[in-house]
Amino acid sequence: MFCTKCGYNAGTAKFCPKCGNPLNPQPVQETPVQNEPVAQTVQSEPVEQQQFGTQPQFNETVQQQFGTQPQSGAVPPVNADVPRYQEAPPMQPQPKKKKKKWPIVVAIIAVIAAAAAVLGFVVLPNVLSPDKHAIAAIKKLGTGLEDTASSAFDNMSLTSVSDKNQITGTLKIDTATIDGEKYSDYIKADTVTYDIQMDASTEKMAGEIKLQNGSATALTVTFYSDGNNMYFKVPELFSESFVISLAQFEDEIDSGFSYGSLGSISKYFSAIDTSNIELYREPVNAAVKCVVKGINTFAEECEYKKGDKFTYNSDNGDIKVSEYSITITKETVIKACETVIDELYASKDLSSYMTILTMAGVSQTTIKSSIESSLSDMQPVTLSMYINKNDEIVRLAIDAADYNTSEKGFVAISFLGNDNPFEYVVIEADVDDINMKYTVKTQDDKAALALEMTQNKEYIKAGAELSSSGTTVKIDNLYVNSNIDDSNIDMKLSGEAIQKEFSKLKYSASDYSGAYNLANLTETQSTTLAYELMKNLNVLSNVFSDKLYNELFNGKSSSGSARLGF
What we know:
566 residues; alpha+beta; 19-stranded mixed beta sheet; 15 helices; 30% strand; disordered C terminus
């Protein structure tokens, strides 16, 4: 359409782009223009211009926005002008097409999700449940107990085990010094050999012990025990035999242990046929499993508080650990014990054993009551526990004041083995002025034990280094070094022990017929013994050094007998 005022070809515009003169609308063009969103946008501009007046002045800037003016006389098709207005960006610039961002967003979400998964699996358990690793470490003790029990049966199955065991061996004094004086200044005999037979089924034992000077035998003691009496001879000194009841023997030596008690215990063990050791595997394993469940209950019932991570400087090198504080209450111990008891009585493999206990008056209820009574005064105890990266206990320690407010110091146990924590165990105690350390190391076929105890300036150090091969155990070094009551002892020994099975005891009661009862010697018997000792006194010259022998007996039998009161 041409403008009626200036004659400009305005196409389908409602207003003349040159002079702004309103033009009659062209209905035929409205439909295609409305179908084009850009054309609608372009058409909106003249509407805004109408608000400022019906005849606005021509503006070159506006003209440029609509495109280049066509040559005079050229009449373009009506629809041809529409693209030209669509391509007029200055008035309404067409935004650039944006790149889709969802791949980046999804990637970010995926990373966050992955991080959250790792956080939830690795970190959150430590935050929400800081006792997770502590519980796992304690439960591993139970697992280790099961493995140990199983290995013990495996070893017994591979080893020739019998009720009739014979142990032979030697023990030699390598060095011995007392208060700076060497034993060689007093003793010639430096080696003990022994051959001992023990029959667990009958509680009988027999054997001989020899004191040797090099390869020469100085003194011999042969013996036989029937479980009630001990018979023995010292043939180099006396032709007579002797007998003493084991009860009297205990009184004479004032021992800290009871042979009779050991004999009573052996009665129970003698009921076990060791030739059929496999029969007891299942009951023992079942009992161990019951104890393990008690350990698991104990682990779950304790109260935990996580501490710091640090490097523990142990006797077996540096170990990275996490520290936990564990509080053990009376209720925790009781619940753990009751778990064991309930499991023992519920086990099918142990039902016959538990029935015997019940018949003897030891019931499930009475055992629980006894435990609760014994723990009635127990106060909460706090332990410090170190755990390594494998959730294995490295160290357990308790402050002495936690169980006795008048004490100072600590008691601790450490498991320091590289492959197996139990291969290197250290037990320590430092309470008031007493310090004690006990170490056990085992590896392959070797073992080392060491004990150190000090109090003020007094001390004792003792230990052994052992190695085994089959049924032979070598004592590479058995030592004692002490300084107690101003007396210093330094002693080192070595030897070996060999275990085997025997068929018959080498001695019996008949070999000691007419034995003198040392508890009731008659006057005649005492005289006879005195005479024989005086006659054979020179035998002791192979036991004592010449210096000591002369000091004791003046080198003369008569003087020696006088000194001894014969």
